[in-house]
Amino acid sequence: MDRNSYIGLGLIFALLIGYFYINQPSAQDLAMQKRAADSIQTIKILETKNQDKLALAAKKEKDSLASILKTDSTALKNVYGGFSGNVLGEEKIQTIENSELKISFSNKGGIIRQVELKNYKTDGRKAVKLMDESNSQHALFFTADQKKINSNDFYWSIAKSDAHSIVYRLSYGAAAYIEHEYFIADKGFNLEHRIHTSGMGSVIQNGAGMTLQFNNDLPLQEREVVEEKKKATIYFKYLDKSADYISETKNESINLEEPVQWVSLKQQFFNTSIYSEKPFLKGSVVSTKDAISNQNVKNMSASLSLPYESGRDQDFKIKYFFGPNQYETLKDQGIGLDKIIPLGWGIFGWMNRFMIIPIFNFLKGYMSNYGIIILLLTLIIKTLLLPLVFKSYKSTAKMRLLKPEMDEIKEKYKDDMQTIQVENLKLYKQAGVNPLGGCLPMLLQMPILIAVFQFVPSAFEFRQQAFLWADDLSIYDSVWNFGKLPVIDYIYGDHVSLFTLLMTISTLIYTRMNNQITGGMNEQMKYISYLMPILFLGFFNKYAAALTYYYFLSNVVTFSQQWAIKKFVDEDKLKAQIHDSKSKKVEDKKSAFQKRLEEIAKAKDASKNNKKK
Q1: Among 10, 178, 423, 492, which residue's CB has the most CB atoms within a 10 Å radius?
Q2: Residue 141 lies in a domain
């Protein structure tokens, strides 16, 4: 970056800080905001009371209808047709489980009522539940006898039940029926679901078909609700296309007009995914960021049409995944479900998939301390990059040795920038120095830096893993919570992350060493280079401790490498190499860029001479 770029960045940051200072709310504004918040809370309380009254009235009406139907079989048949024999009953909960999952079902609808992950806990140390009877709805909709049917209106009979499977049946008269068959293997995160119809070919209308619907108020699993809300969204994959997702930051709904292979309701570290062997014909997905309570993150729903064909019995094979957003686990599903983990696009994603994650998984196979794993991962990556660092240092050292001659050229030609560039290129060529040799190796390291930035906050393995003073590497490590303060909370946060402080200090040390190596930087630019890490302090203060710990280690290893290289590189030898190169006759092969600069310089000189005449 040149001087103007540094000045521009400095002014921008100064303006931002000034803007935040000028626009911070006054005491009067804060009082008004509090009155508005109190008014909104009062309205919400009144709305809740009104909703409770409406719900009570609806329950009384439903109980009244049920009472009438119990004594009036004709009315019952008119409302529910051939399914009327299944309206009344008693709810029974059945449970099947394996080493990973405990899933509860209800005969009221033959549906999933609750899904518990047995080996994972929430931040409150309760079992992680991806579905719960209090906030999830699972239903099958279809049209029969010209009536829209909700499977949850009926009590299904249990046709079969054991430790790993259960079969629910909804009868239509004496001979026809629909079945929900659920099966779970001894281990794993999958639930297999078979929807089977027998004798229903002329009952269920083809035009409306059958629709599977999920509605889930995602329960809060992590400590940082703001971060969890940012990461929660719905992914979906059309047949023979790449996975896509809807907005993470706003309410959004999408109609899926093409055949859909799978849909995933994704949280920060867990997901509920639905996959069909025969693609869903179409569907819709909705994400609402306004949770129903402080115990929920977002409301998400998916409505998926099954490829129903009337006139014959049907079999739909559906598979659910209830589990962690762990790259290898999702990849093993074989349907591209690993795409829900944001590893970065293009070269950054490739770096993660083919370098960072394989090294990480290799180390994970030999040790369980993730702080040590991050340390070894850093050492391996920095060792692989060492040749680039060495080359960059040598090139920068050569440029520093040429600095006096470059200053002479600048002094000689004053403000004639084209001529200065031409003369500098000649000097580089004579000395055998590549002007890009210092920055190009550093640029080649950027994809790895950005890849790690994508991988670490998304890695499920860091969740609830303690190291040193950090009790959870997947969130920031707070050594002091000082509370929310105006402006400061927005820019910096309400806590102090020690790993972020160490990262910032190490970056300042690295910047100082780098300034000494390059040399020639004026004082103003030096101050700006020191200011940048401090400005980024607020940005990284809210990031996962695993990430700031990695960057701290990376800085320490980098300036340790540079210190060692400085001891190893003999600058007297470099001077001798430059002298030898300059004393040799260099073949005058000019690049197109150099030729163009010389043409511009000659044209400028010619123009000056014409003016003098």
Answers
A1: 178
A2: yes
